Amino acid sequence: QVLLCGVIVARPEDPLTFLEEKLREIMEKGLDAVLRNMCIDLSSYPKLKRISETYLNTVFGLDGEQLMTEELCTKAWDFYSKNLMKLYFGGWIKYNLLKKNKRKKAKQEMALAVVHYNVQILRVIMQKWSTWVQIHKEKMTLALKRLQEIFNKIYLNAVMKAWHAEAHSSLKTKAYFESLAEESQKDYFESNDLTVRHKTSNLPEKALLQIFRYVNLIDLARCAQVSQMWMLTTQNSSLWSDINFSSVKHKVQDQIVVNILQKWRPYVLRLNLRSCYSLHWPSFKSISECKNLQDLNLSECQGLNDESMRLISEGCRALLYLNLSYTDITNGTLRLLSSSFPNLQYLSLAHCRKFTDKGLLYLGSGEGCHKLIYLDLSGCIQISVDGFRNIANGCSRIQDLIINKMPTLTDRCIQVLVEKCQQIMSVVFLDSPHLSDTTFKALAECKLVKVSIEGNNQITDLSFQLMSKCCPYIRHIHMADCQKITDAGLKMISPLKHILVLNVADCIRISDGGVRPFVQGSSGTKLRELNLTNCICVTDASVTEIAQRCHGLTYLNLRHCENVTDAGIEALGNVSSLISTDLSGTSISDTGLRALGRHGKIKELSLSECKNISDTGIQEFCKGTKLLEYCHVSYCPQLTDEAVKAMAFHCHRLTSVNIAGCPKMTDTCIQYLAAACHYLRFLDVSGCIHLTDKALKCLWKGCKQLQILKMLYCRNITKQAVLKYTAKLEKQEHNDADPPSWLGYDRDCNTPSPKNHTSE
């Protein structure tokens, strides 16, 4: 059997014959008569009608004999139509979406093209506008420059005319006063009543000017009333280039300052208003009119604030030196400094506590204080490491740095400062206990010439070693009260060749083992000042070496060097350059004192607490020393009036005398001083229990220049006398209490018993 056209047909018995017959039939009937079922036997056809000669009966679940109905055809046609409609409608939707997307994309591309076109147009317009603005700015700058030149010429012309008129007027005034002076002198010579002319009128004008420079403002005004010649001399402009109101600070008022500055403002170069507490806005306004002012000291002026500094900054742009210590200035003033004083070189902000690190940032902003070479920040404990960094960024040319009384100062502060300020030559760090050798490691990059440190227990000999290696030109070393400094440190700096000043006071580990090698070193012959206060291990061996090597020594302090005796002091008598020495608390006696006064050039001598000297020693010393100006013999209870008598009659230049703690002194010694020492300015008689009101009266009559008088524990001096005779003194101290036990005697000049002394 064979499946043919979907019908199972039996195989013919003779296939070849069957094929031959069918081929012949096709040849007779033609190809058009060929049907697909012509090779099937009729008996093999399925018994179905034509309409049912399909597989629809199977699809529609019809029986073999059932015919296709109209409903089935309708159902088939609906199914076919829906599918066909769904196919074409889906295609139509896809076509429309494609067109819509194309239109949307074209619209976006067109919008992007419009934006790009507008940007290109705007760029062209901005380029043209920028070019126009640049050209316009150049034209404006050129025009402004030309206008400024024209203004400057006109202003200069006006200034020159005004100056010419002022000079012409001054010449007329001077000629007028000179004519008056000539007439006065002519009348003087012709007069028979006046037979003697004052000696000072014969002095040249230059000599009078030099004398008047040492006179304060009040005395200068008095001098102007002596004669017409003196009046003319006091009107010389050179006398008013340097005005010192500080010397008369208790009498200075705004009106006085305003009157003087308005008259002499073109000539004022230096102005000192230190401690003038009563100055206010009018005075500061007058200062701002001194256009040529270069040096201004406003230290301790209580009326100074940021607004006052703003007034001053408007006119005094030529300032080089400015002292604002102990004032209430804030960050506002520091901002003014950076913009108003571009040439400022010296600035003191010591103990100004109201500015901050941010204020220091202003020093480097704008024109800034880039020329600053001197800066004092003593007592400014509010400054942190950031503040010092701001200083370094803005003021890299600093050469002199002073930071005293600042317990918050640390090594890190100095490190950040030195990172950019490498021109520092002088540093002063007194009372800064937290600094260590690390500070000197940082400062090793600077070529130090001066170092001053005091009250520090962390600095060791390593700092001296760093100085020796990195500071070959150092001249001034002040390392007082540094407990870890030893003889090894002095040996390390002995090769340095330029040391002029060495201060190791209160370094108690220093002994002959350090002093002698240093003096024998390269700087020994050049040394000018040496301070060994409280170096208790130093003996006569060191003093003798100093006398032999230090031929240029002018100042020597051996205070409380207990092991120094007459043997060393006698050697000092051969040092002809020595003019000042402190031998307080040593074992000096009359023999050493006599040898010390041999060359007669000593001007300052301190012998406090020297129990072995007597009146005879003082007399011998004063006979050979006529130039003595400063003499302190306090707490020498064995001295009497005879010692002061020798001072007064042999040393007429005395300006400072201290006889505190000398209970044997009486009114007689004060009479000696008042009679002979007319230049005396300082006197301490505390503990001189026998002095009375008579002593004050003598001082009032004889010592006209006395400024400071101390009278503690003087129970025989009354308060009424103090008020009467010391009213004009700058400073006086007085009480009538009994002497304290540490003086070593009581109110009756008796030495208290050890038991009482211990209990007290």
3D structure, described in words:
- This protein has 26 helices and 22 strands.
- Helices cover 44% and strands 10% of the residues.
- Among the domains are: 1-60 and 78-136, no CATH class; 589-747, Alpha-Beta Horseshoe (Leucine-rich repeat, LRR (right-handed beta-alpha superhelix)).
- The strands form two sheets. It has a 20-stranded parallel β-sheet, with no helix packed on it. It has a two-stranded antiparallel ribbon with strand order 1-2.
- Strand 19, helix 23 and strand 20 (682-684) form a beta-alpha-beta unit.
- By secondary structure, it is of the alpha/beta class.
Topology:
Blueprint: E1 2-4, E2 7-9, H1 15-29, H2 56-59, H3 70-190, H4 205-212, H5 217-223, H6 228-234, E3 242-244, H7 254-264, E4 270-272, H8 281-288, E5 295-297, H9 306-315, E6 321-323, H10 331-340, E7 346-348, H11 357-362, E8 374-376, H12 385-394, E9 400-402, H13 411-418, E10 426-430, H14 437-443, E11 450-454, H15 461-470, E12 476-480, H16 487-493, E13 501-503, H17 512-520, E14 529-531, H18 540-549, E15 555-557, H19 566-572, E16 580-582, H20 590-596, E17 604-606, H21 615-624, E18 630-632, H22 641-650, E19 656-658, H23 667-676, E20 682-684, H24 693-702, E21 708-711, H25 719-725, E22 731-734, H26 754-759
Parallel strand pairs: 3-4, 4-5, 5-6, 6-7, 7-8, 8-9, 9-10, 10-11, 11-12, 12-13, 13-14, 14-15, 15-16, 16-17, 17-18, 18-19, 19-20, 20-21, 21-22
Antiparallel strand pairs: 1-2
